[in-house]
Amino acid sequence: MKMTSGKLVEILKGKLANAEWSFDFDREKDSLRVEDSTSNKGVTLSLPGIIAKWETSKEKAIDEVVYYVEEALIVMNKEQELSGKEKSIYPVIRSTSFPTESNEGIKLCYSDHTAETRIYYALDLGNTYRLIDEKMMQKENWTRDQLKEVSAFNVRALKTSVKEDIVAGNVFYFFNANDGYDASRILNDSLLQSFEEKIEGKMAVAVPHQDVLIIVDVRNDTGYDILAQLTMSFFASGNVPITALSFLYESKELEPIFILGKNKPIQ
Q: What is this structure's pTM?
């Protein structure tokens, strides 16, 4: 059976049936908005990424999305506090096309990162998390610096799980702890510097979606082509895509690179 966006929407509607939840299928953006009718809060799902996952893991992919949506909608209707939960505040990486306001028009807290990415901030709630907005900050008299400091400390404290692969003479390191903050580890300067010290070629970094960080020791031109293919594949299959572009890491700086097939990267 071939999964189409329309068919996937029907499956999700059936599994998420709730008298208080509404569904809006945007064919142009290929996305599905699931919203609580009483609070007007909800989540928007990118359908191509779910279909890509379904092709490899079938029902498990659907079940994961259903679980994520249910948990998110339940959490959204509860008042959340930052004070006393400092250890549960983390930075999350998103693309620069990600909304800067909630659906209620409240400005989300974020910081600049690269030309392709932004840093948002999240309150971890166990099975899901909530992005921190300015209303939450004002309510508890939190400052942006306080938020950045706390979240940076917490991301450095995350355990590191890395898988190493050698492809065509290039060394690929995959960080995939499945804790929701794999891409956030790109903000751990000490982690990046520790890899820079042992890399023999050029150091490239990629965050194609929320649940992976890729660091590459690029030792030949083929390494750039492999990285380009990998990031595009990961970008297309992620629940929360970030960017299909990669970055060169030098002297604590990230520079976006555009990789053309069979060519060296262009900065």
A: 0.76
